[in-house]
Amino acid sequence: DAMVIQNPRYQVTQFGKPVTLSCSQTLNHNVMYWYQQKSSQAPKLLFHYYDKDFNNEADTPDNFQSRRPNTSFCFLDIRSPGLGDAAMYLCATQGQLNQPQHFGDGTRLSIL
Amino acid sequence: DQQVKQNSPSLSVQEGRISILNCDYTNSMFDYFLWYKKYPAEGPTFLISISSIKDKNEDGRFTVFLNKSAKHLSLHIVPSQPGDSAVYFCAAFNSGNTGKLIFGQGTTLQVKP
């Protein structure tokens, strides 16, 4: 049974058109992460929530925003996608900070 | 500044033989190290971890070795099976800071029947 669910699996949007990716979890984990992964590269952390506390990485573009309305859900908003934002976006959860992260299957975003 | 490096983009081994995947890190503050396996079109799946207070952790066919003085860890898979063919990511974090994982670039393992 999937414990970290990302929707949609594939998303196509137009250049400059806002897009939202969603992540839900059944693990009741405190921490949720969003990563961006481009081909043949390491996943790159964009931001994370510890409960309701939002932590942005210093090099995450302002174009990327996130919301966590409750423990189970977390959203990634890309306000004006550019061609360089085409990537796989991975959501992960973590119960405690010294435990492994659990990943969803990702959303592959394409920009036309 | 890449703090976690996997210098071999790919590795090919014969079924039944040992697979050894290597990883180097630069940050001496890392105290947990993990290996994730990733199949195409799926998210990374946690495989095995090791704390910096240990030098070896074994789980079935998978063993992770940590050499802190060399800042090097390796994943041994024995015997290798065709189903092990995937991308393997090494990752590390400092539990005293945040749970933020730093990933290597990944190594694609192909196990030939």
Describe the protein's topology.
The complex is a heterodimer of chains A (112) and B (113).
Chain A: E1 4-7, E2 10-13, E3 19-25, E4 31-37, E5 44-50, E6 53-56, E7 64-67, E8 73-78, E9 87-94, E10 102-103, E11 107-111
Parallel strand pairs in A: 2-11
Antiparallel strand pairs in A: 1-3, 3-8, 4-5, 4-9, 5-6, 7-8, 9-10, 9-11
Chain B: E1 4-5, E2 10-14, E3 19-25, E4 32-38, E5 45-51, E6 56-59, E7 62-67, E8 72-77, E9 86-93, E10 102-103, E11 107-112
Parallel strand pairs in B: 2-11
Antiparallel strand pairs in B: 1-3, 3-8, 4-5, 4-9, 6-7, 7-8, 9-10, 9-11
Structural class of chain B: mainly beta
Query: Quick one: CATH superfamily of chain B?
Result: Immunoglobulins
Most residues in contact: chain pair? A-B, 27 and 24 residues
Please work out how many helical segments of chain A DSSP would assign: 0
- Number of DSSP helices of chain B? 0
Question: In angstroms, what separates the terminal alpha carbons of chain A?
Answer: 33 Å
The best one-word shape of chain B is: globular
Percent strand of chain B equals over 45%
**Uncertain segments of chain B of ≥5 residues (pLDDT<50)?**
none
Structural class of chain A: mainly beta
Number of strands of chain A: 11
Main beta sheet of chain A: 7 strands, mixed
Helix coverage percent of chain A: under 10%
The major β-sheet of chain B equals: 6 strands, mixed
Average pLDDT reading of chain A:
93
Q: What is CATH's topology name of chain B?
A: Immunoglobulin-like
